[in-house]
Amino acid sequence: MWVFPALFLCIALGLPLAGVLRNSLSDISAVDFSPQFGIAVTAGGQALISTIGALLIGLPIAGILATYRFRGRGFVQALVTVPFVLPTVVIALAFRELFGSLLSPGLALVVIAHIYINLAVVVRIVGATWQQLDPRMVVAARSLGASPWRAFLTVTLPQLKAVLASAASIVFVFCFTSLGVVLVLGNGGTRTLETQILRQTSLLLDFPTAAITALLQLIVVSIALLLGARASMNATQNARNLRFTRLSVIRGIRARTYVFLVAIAACIFVILPLISLASGSLRDSHGWTLQWWQSLTELDAGTTRLGSPLTAVVTSVKYAVITGFIAGVIGVLAAMSVLSHRLGRAILVIALAPLGISAATLGLGFMLAYGRPPLDLRGADLLIPLAHSIVAVPLVIAVVLPTLRSTDQRFAVAASSLGARPTRAFFTAYGPILRIVAFAAAGLAACVSLGEFGAASFLARSSSPTTPVQIVKLLQRPGDQSFGVACALAVILVLITLTLVAAIDALSRKRWVKV
Amino acid sequence: MFSSVFKKIAVLSAASSLALLAACGSSQEQAGPAAVTLLTHDSFVVSEALVAQLKKETGITLKITTAGDAGAMLAGAVLAAGSPSADVMFGVDNTLLAKATNADVFSAYTSKNLDLVSPALKTDTGNGVVTPIDYGDVCINIDDAWFRKRNVAVPTSIDQLTQPAYKDLLVVQDPATSSPGLAFMLATQAKFGDQWLSYWKQLEANGVQVSGSWTDAYESAFSASGGTRPLVVSYATSPPAEIVYAANPKPKKPSTSVLTDGCYRQIEFAGVLRGTQNEGAAQQVVDWLLSPAVQADLPLSMFVFPARANTPLPEVFTKFATKVPNPLQLPATVVDANLKTWLNQWDEVMNR
């Protein structure tokens, strides 16, 4: 069973990377290492600040979502997930609209945007564990006279340590390898290794240095992920024994106020930038207008610009479906391998590696491996969904693994002992869960595909661009029109994503899937 | 105990995925001998009618493949030099030309109509491998209303930008991540020579803002778009683009103008890719790009000036596009030899 995902990773990831390395490392002697280390330190500092910020803001939200039942809980949970799957460039644009006159580009804006994007990672990952903690321990502490704050510090927090480390490592990786946000909101002093790779590949065409930089990035990312994976292994082992997933009703005016304030603050924080996008799509220099929405189908008609802006939405949806299928299948199989194979941990780390592989590297590698005969996949429109699958597989595994792990194997044993053949016994035990978890995983992969920008912009294509790429193209020319239509496209993307996330949540409310 | 089941699932899903791959693969049209693939950057656009006309006149079916910005496109072409995935490449500019020729990306051909191109544009054809198709100038754009309102004189040369009167007014782009940012850096290099770094030191002391991208600098920081800075590095054709892409009803004239000093000339070239199976048809496509019809289409499609002399310009260009009298330019080989050093020096001076 591990053969298929392994084969996929080899072909879809190994081959392109080998191509880049072969083309790059031929004259490695000329590479100047020192600047890359400086950038790595700068980017590491930025990622650390962003991670701490995301944890500080994400924890209270994760807490109320994990402990209390209240009206609008599902909405809040879906809402905080949306920034994570939106194109980073769109988020950067929204923040520039919001804070343009207050903050100039630089570290502060980059960090705020990173916190915004990664809020979902903290809320979802930490929330999943938090929900399983035994609430009676907090009750006991409170009845012994501990304040809510003290109860949190001495009872809840220690139990969350492992999952906090795991969430932090993932957030750190995302901020460390950030590209879109840094390009739009940075000021040159906030570079990441990813922007360096972009500069080396597409400006200096210095492939050896680019390969070394990509390798350096991969090393840092692997270390961070390994630390996180170790923590999460321990965390799930603890959590397996204790499963309290019942939410409690909010009691007392103070708790009520607290939950209300946190929920409202979270909504405002998430919605405000989205509203600035929506208003951008409905305004021109004269006031309110619908013309940008009307020109969605007409703009650039009659040119070779590969379709109207709306065509890009169709392209994106198509790629998202293919990505959902490929990444869903591969991710679920890989997660099953991690569980059942004795080299599970190694498989896990390899399968998570794409998180740290630069979009520019991936794009170039794909071009080398599949961009020309005999294996020219461009005409088949498969390159981009294939690249998206590579990016999405780690997240699918992250979703599927805890769910499969917490499934009671005794069902299968019972079924076999009652005379079921292995196939039948397997489906008795895992079937119902797999069905749901596979859909949730595919949905998540589709979300990733909808928002992915880096690899899609780098890959050669002969059909309409994806929506994020189209948005960026529109933003690269002057005039009210370009901006308004870009905002309208961004709003459509937000709506599709929100719907998809809400659907996944509806599935997971069946208690089996913890996205 | 379930390994056999897992295996079955794996085989089934593998088979279905392969079938999907095969299905998608076979739907791909087989390109005939008269199909030419044009590799270009994301900004490339021409009218569809012209592509149809090419097919009618020569039988060539033009397939357009876009591959990111000019640099990303070239990176792919360099890595595939000699066994290209396309037949013709359009969009390499004079900044990157030497990278392309060093990697031997093109085969020897310049358009048979090269003599109709303005002389200033064809000083460098990479030793006869590329044909100039269009050009444009990267210049500082001015928000005129801002200066009028405050009774401040509009700057007339980039030397003035280090003066106290223009403190905190200019926004530029990081040359490492932005094409106009790079062009402006090269312009200062061409204009000030050895003194270019001290010019940047003074700009920094005078409060220049550095954005990561043109989008941020122009759409957010520039006062004409609602920001706070009335001077921004952009293109000489940005004012007419402001009119064409404005909200309805379109304004009578643009609210921005161009500082004609310190402009850097960008020339875009097309060439036949070495190793193509379609040499003859590929050459015809290069000629087509230089044909009167395509040349006349370029200004409104891509907001550039046509390379072919005496091509009629649309009204919005003749009225509002600034023709820069003496644009700055550096030889492609000089740029190639020094770019890395200059970028590092710029980083150092600007504390990046």
From TrEMBL, chain A:
<keyword id="KW-0813">Transport</keyword>
<protein>
    <submittedName>
        <fullName>Unannotated protein</fullName>
    </submittedName>
</protein>
<feature type="transmembrane region" description="Helical">
    <location>
        <begin position="162"/>
        <end position="185"/>
    </location>
</feature>
<feature type="transmembrane region" description="Helical">
    <location>
        <begin position="107"/>
        <end position="127"/>
    </location>
</feature>
<feature type="transmembrane region" description="Helical">
    <location>
        <begin position="483"/>
        <end position="504"/>
    </location>
</feature>
<keyword id="KW-0472">Membrane</keyword>
<feature type="transmembrane region" description="Helical">
    <location>
        <begin position="425"/>
        <end position="451"/>
    </location>
</feature>
<feature type="transmembrane region" description="Helical">
    <location>
        <begin position="382"/>
        <end position="404"/>
    </location>
</feature>
<feature type="domain" description="ABC transmembrane type-1">
    <location>
        <begin position="40"/>
        <end position="228"/>
    </location>
</feature>
<feature type="transmembrane region" description="Helical">
    <location>
        <begin position="46"/>
        <end position="68"/>
    </location>
</feature>
<dbReference type="InterPro" id="IPR035906">
    <property type="entry name" value="MetI-like_sf"/>
</dbReference>
<feature type="domain" description="ABC transmembrane type-1">
    <location>
        <begin position="313"/>
        <end position="504"/>
    </location>
</feature>
<keyword id="KW-0997">Cell inner membrane</keyword>
<feature type="transmembrane region" description="Helical">
    <location>
        <begin position="258"/>
        <end position="278"/>
    </location>
</feature>
<feature type="transmembrane region" description="Helical">
    <location>
        <begin position="319"/>
        <end position="339"/>
    </location>
</feature>
<keyword id="KW-1133">Transmembrane helix</keyword>
<keyword id="KW-1003">Cell membrane</keyword>
<dbReference type="InterPro" id="IPR000515">
    <property type="entry name" value="MetI-like"/>
</dbReference>
<dbReference type="GO" id="GO:0055085">
    <property type="term" value="P:transmembrane transport"/>
</dbReference>
<feature type="transmembrane region" description="Helical">
    <location>
        <begin position="346"/>
        <end position="370"/>
    </location>
</feature>
<feature type="transmembrane region" description="Helical">
    <location>
        <begin position="205"/>
        <end position="227"/>
    </location>
</feature>
<dbReference type="GO" id="GO:0005886">
    <property type="term" value="C:plasma membrane"/>
</dbReference>
From TrEMBL, chain B:
<dbReference type="InterPro" id="IPR005948">
    <property type="entry name" value="ThiB-like"/>
</dbReference>
<dbReference type="Pfam" id="PF13343">
    <property type="entry name" value="SBP_bac_6"/>
</dbReference>
<protein>
    <submittedName>
        <fullName>Unannotated protein</fullName>
    </submittedName>
</protein>
<dbReference type="GO" id="GO:0030976">
    <property type="term" value="F:thiamine pyrophosphate binding"/>
</dbReference>
<dbReference type="GO" id="GO:0015888">
    <property type="term" value="P:thiamine transport"/>
</dbReference>
<dbReference type="GO" id="GO:0030975">
    <property type="term" value="F:thiamine binding"/>
</dbReference>
<dbReference type="GO" id="GO:0030288">
    <property type="term" value="C:outer membrane-bounded periplasmic space"/>
</dbReference>
<keyword id="KW-0732">Signal</keyword>
